[in-house]
Amino acid sequence: MSEWHLSETFRSTSGEVRWGSLGEPGRDPVVLLHGTPFSSYVWRAVARALARRHQVFVWDMPGYGASEMSLGQDVSLAAQSRVFTELLEHWGLAEPLVAAHDFGGAVSLRAHLLHGARYRALALVDPVALAPWGSPFFRLVGEHSQVFEQLPPALHHALVREYVSSASSPGLHPAVLDRLVRPWLGDLGQAAFYRQIAQADQRHTDEVQDRYGEITVPTLVCWGQDDTWIPPARGRELAARIPGAGLEPIAGAGHLVQEDAPAELTAALLTFLRDPRADRDPRAGRGPAAR
């Protein structure tokens, strides 16, 4: 698999953040947000394609990927949305284009609605946004995270590998799966894996869920039609709650759309980002790329 390295460092209120940018500086900026239990690595193909026209900013949230993992670290959705707001200021981006996946969707929505972060357009890819969320496994681990932290390394490795695999519909290339699992291994990574699940509190989306009708930013909701983590019906509900939002169903993709259908997702994002205010027909449940 191609190498993915974040060369820059930012000291946030929740620890050191690793970040990077692709494309020529000064081009129309796009910021990509990953979800859990992933990292910016899942955006690599899409980021490189977008970088032909944009300056693309990618980052690993505190507690994820190459960013800081530490005992007692606040990696909650509340903390991540504050860190994202700090990063936008650090980058000097007043109104970027934003694409956010899974928990990154919740982070971008909270930053916008609670912290005043402004976007020129917002694309949400299978986001955590509507209650209830969290699979039975996810909730079980959250309730007993200290027990799971004590698992023998081999059992923990097998558990994380199986969990990450389930995010894909057609299945992940073994090298990609290895790369996604790697940050969660070792004493530091194992503790960090269960820490981020333990801090995944639904109240952080409850705080903003009833405010989605206030969003005036052009919005596109993309959803893998084979998503077993968050059902596609949530995508239709979310698009209906955000005024004027388009909906882009992506066939053959599970929750990890960037890995399952990178070409289809990139095409949808390029079409949307090129003209975010182009006429869309959310009542038909279609975004511009579906026409």
UniProtKB/TrEMBL annotation:
Protein name, UniProt field: Alpha/beta hydrolase
Keywords, in A-Z order: Hydrolase
Keyword Hydrolase set for record: yes
UniProt GO MF annotations: hydrolase activity
Lineage per the UniProt record: Bacteria, Bacillati, Actinomycetota, Actinomycetes, Kitasatosporales
Record Gene3D superfamilies: alpha/beta hydrolase
AB hydrolase-1 domain: residues covered: 29-262
Entries under InterPro entries matching the protein: AB_hydrolase_1 (IPR000073), AB_hydrolase_fold (IPR029058), Carboxylesterase_BioH (IPR050228), Epox_hydrolase-like (IPR000639)
Keyword Hydrolase: yes
